[in-house]
Structure formats: structure tokens, C-alpha cells
Design the sequence.
């Protein structure tokens, strides 16, 4: 440990205790010599104004409490080596998920972390080189992500111009954002739409303008949000009203059995090694894409409508590979 880790660890020991901790226990937890413990205590008292009280009767130390009975807290941000590593990994993940998304806001923080890492000689700056994230079919979140995220966190309404892919027509509407969702490498906003008088899902990259309003966002409780968004399949909302029964080959079962297609899925191995997966859904568009990627290794057993939809897709695809007559 270096001095910062000593301070951080000692602070953690003292703030969690109502009784004194002995010098021997402090030395053991800090993994250092007695003189180093004394230097750390002196530094915290003189430079950080830590109210460390010497308990001469019991030969230990504790924090004195303020008039309201609260313990002292370290000024500013203090991180252990493990926490710095976690922060750096998180920063790398975010930058890989959406390059430049919060670069401006995080630049000062990133510089501070880098400086600490250099001083600690922890070698954690390898994260950018050693963590690799492959994004498939990711779309740029657009210039209005920060406005949407800010309104969501601050519980404010938004006025947006939304150009949905399905209709291909831009509309202006006021929404009460509830959640920001990162799904399959893309960002969405679950919100109450005041124009449609209902819950809607907005792809953030299709928002053409966004203005935060003074009015507070309407609150939708978590249970209602989960019932609306979590029961259907994929990004499509609405309560699931059908159950797909999929039968995978024994070869593909070894992969599918470990995958999570839906929070409420149910799966079981059959005696011949095949794997049966039951999935609630409402809209079959995204489910169809996931079924077709397994092609000959999966059979839709039910419902008949989904079975027919997969068959039609396969027959239509086969036409592209059928050699011309003659």
C-alpha cells in the first residue's frame, strides 16, 4: 500500500467502529510498520483534519463524532486500488459502447484517475489495451443523448421531435422519460408519451431535437414499467400474450441452455439431448430474427402462427438461392 491506500483503509476502519481499534490491529490491516501507522494518523489529523482521538486507556484510536452524532468523512474523492481499477474498466466499457458519448464530461475525471494511477504505479492504464468489446449493429446515439439522460435523471419532461423508423414521419411530442435502456448495442428511452397518452419506447438515435422543460416528469411506478416492458420479447413493449416453444438440436443445446433470451423463459433438456425453450412474447419480429440465426438447428413447435412465419421467411430466403430454370 502507498500513503493514499493507508489513509483510505484507516478511514474505513475508524468510520465503521463505535469503539477504539488497537494499534496492533491497525498495523495488521494496513500491512505496515508502527511508525507508518503513526505517520498516517499524523497526516490525517494535520492535512485532512480527521478527528482521530487517542484512547490511552485501551491503547487504540477512534473518530470523535460531531454534535449531530455523525462520523467524519474524507474530503474529496478517495479511491482504493480495486475501486480505481473498477472505475477504469467502467470508463473503458462506456467508451467502447459509445465512443465520445461522455468524453467532455469525463475528461477531467479521467485525467485525475490517470494521474493517481501513475503515482501509484499500479499498471491499470493497460485497461484500454486489454479490454476488447465488439459491438454489432450499433447505431450512433445522436447528439441528444445527454439531454435525454439529464431529463431522465432529474425527472423533467422533454419536448422532442421524433422520426420513428416504422412510420418514417417526424412528430413533435412531450414525453416524461422513465428509463434509459442500453439494448443490443443501442440506446432507448422508455417514456410516457403525452401525445399518445401511453407508455412508448423511443430509439434515441431517431430523436431529431430535444428540449428539457420546466415541468416535472409524470411518475410511473417500477411495477407498471416492468409489466409493460419486461414481459414482451426484446425491445417491443406490451404485455406478452403468447408463448413460443422452440426445440433446439442436441448440438446447439449446449449454447442455448446458457443464454438468456427472456427474463421469464423456461428451458429443459429432453432425454435425447435436445433442448426445449419456452419464451413469452407479443410481437414476433425480433423473436423471428433470433430464431432464424439458428436456422436448421431449431424447430418452432408452437404457436402455429410463429411456426408459419418462420417457414415463410425461410421459403422467401430460399428463392434467392434457387438456380434459374433451364
Sequence:
Amino acid at each position: 500500500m502507498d500513503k493514499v491506500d493507508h489513509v483510505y483503509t484507516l478511514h474505513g476502519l475508524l468510520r465503521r467502529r463505535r469503539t477504539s481499534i488497537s494499534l496492533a490491529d491497525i498495523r495488521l490491516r494496513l500491512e505496515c510498520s508502527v511508525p507508518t501507522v503513526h505517520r498516517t494518523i499524523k497526516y490525517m489529523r494535520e492535512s485532512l483534519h480527521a478527528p482521530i482521538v487517542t484512547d490511552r486507556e485501551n491503547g487504540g484510536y477512534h473518530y470523535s463524532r460531531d454534535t449531530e452524532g455523525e462520523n467524519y468523512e474524507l474530503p474529496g474523492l478517495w479511491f482504493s486500488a480495486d475501486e480505481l481499477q473498477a472505475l477504469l474498466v467502467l470508463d473503458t466499457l462506456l467508451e467502447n459502447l459509445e465512443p465520445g458519448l461522455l468524453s467532455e464530461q469525463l475528461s477531467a475525471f479521467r485525467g485525475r484517475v490517470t494521474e493517481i494511477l501513475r503515482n501509484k504505479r499500479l499498471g491499470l492504464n493497460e485497461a484500454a489495451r486489454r479490454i476488447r468489446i465488439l459491438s454489432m449493429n450499433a447505431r450512433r446515439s445522436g447528439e441528444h443523448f445527454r439531454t435525454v439522460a439529464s431529463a431522465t435523471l432529474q425527472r423533467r419532461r422533454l419536448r422532442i421531435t421524433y422520426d420513428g423508423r416504422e412510420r418514417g414521419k417526424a412528430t413533435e411530442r412531450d414525453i416524461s422519460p422513465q428509463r434509459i435502456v442500453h439494448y443490443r448495442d443501442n440506446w432507448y428511452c422508455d417514456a410516457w408519451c403525452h401525445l399518445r397518452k401511453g407508455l412508448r419506447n423511443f430509439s434515441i438515435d431517431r430523436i431529431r431535437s430535444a428540449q428539457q422543460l420546466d415541468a416535472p416528469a409524470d411518475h410511473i411506478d417500477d411495477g407498471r414499467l416492468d409489466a409493460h416492458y419486461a414481459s414482451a420479447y426484446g425491445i417491443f413493449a406490451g404485455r406478452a400474450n403468447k408463448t413460443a416453444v422452440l426445440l433446439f438440436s442436441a448440438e446447439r443445446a449446449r449454447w442455448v441452455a446458457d443464454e438468456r433470451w427472456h427474463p421469464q423463459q423456461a428451458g429443459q433438456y429432453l432425454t435425447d439431448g435436445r433442448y426445449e425453450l419456452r419464451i413469452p412474447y407479443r410481437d414476433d419480429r425480433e423473436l423471428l430474427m433470433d430464431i432464424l440465426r439458428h436456422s436448421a438447428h431449431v424447430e418452432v413447435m408452437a404457436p402455429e402462427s410463429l411456426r408459419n412465419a418462420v417457414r415463410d421467411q425461410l421459403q422467401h430466403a430460399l428463392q434467392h438461392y434457387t438456380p434459374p430454370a433451364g
About this structure: The chain has eleven helices and twelve strands. The mean pLDDT is 83. Residues 81-130 form one domain.
